[in-house]
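Folding problem:
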Amino acid sequence: MFKRLRSDIKCVLDRDPAARNGLEVFLCYPGFHAVRNHRVAHFLHKHGFKLLARCLSQLSRFFTGIEIHPGATIGERLFIDHGMGVVIGETAIIGNDVTLYQGTTLGGTGKDTGKRHPTIGNNVMISSGARVLGPFKVGDYAKIGAGAVVLNEVPPYATVVGVPGRIVKIANCPRTPTGEPACTKDTTDCRLIENCPAVRAAENGAVPGRDESGVDLDQIHLPDPVAIELEQLKKRLAAMEEKLNKLSSEK
């Protein structure tokens, strides 16, 4: 118990530069309190005390602004930064070293029964206001941009932005809105590109810009798929204008 407590405190100290010491985290961080309360509620839920577990989760929601259903499964070192408005559904599964920012939702898309909430892999970062809705998996080391609405499975090392969510980067490789690598047109699989740095990074289990722990808190260097597409259109228009000018001069 104390080992997990120290681990939960340390993950906050590692990822939040505003956290000065463990005592401050223990006393003042609602995300830490919500995770600790959930671990107790989840234990009660698994052992048949479901009403008591739900009452504890609602009490925790009242004090922290973070709603975690006691049936949700949470791994080690979950960091919920600020946390107000975070919602985690009953059948959600969260891996290790995940970071959630305020206003994020791990929810369902209706009143289906069974598995209806997402499974989040290890070392995933979900930015402010993002919605991940449905019983699919978000792969390890994935990143969800602020305000994104993710309705489909996300592969490992991918970056997703927009409404609906689009994959704009896998590892260090930018993507167009159609999912093609922006660096090589009409190539749908980076593995077909000789010596692709993105593939090498993924195969080595690391992505440029991540530290040794694998935690990536960068929320601003996210490609814009619309801007990428517009840039390609500008290049095509410039080429067409050049060709037209050449034909006009020849006439």
